[in-house]
Amino acid sequence: MKLRIRDLREDNDLYQRNIAEYLNCTQQTYSRYETGDLEPSLPVMAKLAEFYNTSVDFLMGLTDVREPYKHSTKNK
Question: Would you tell me which CATH number, out of the four given (1.20.1730.10, 3.40.1280.10, 1.10.1270.20, 1.10.260.40), belongs to the domain 2-60?
Answer without folding.
Answer: 1.10.260.40
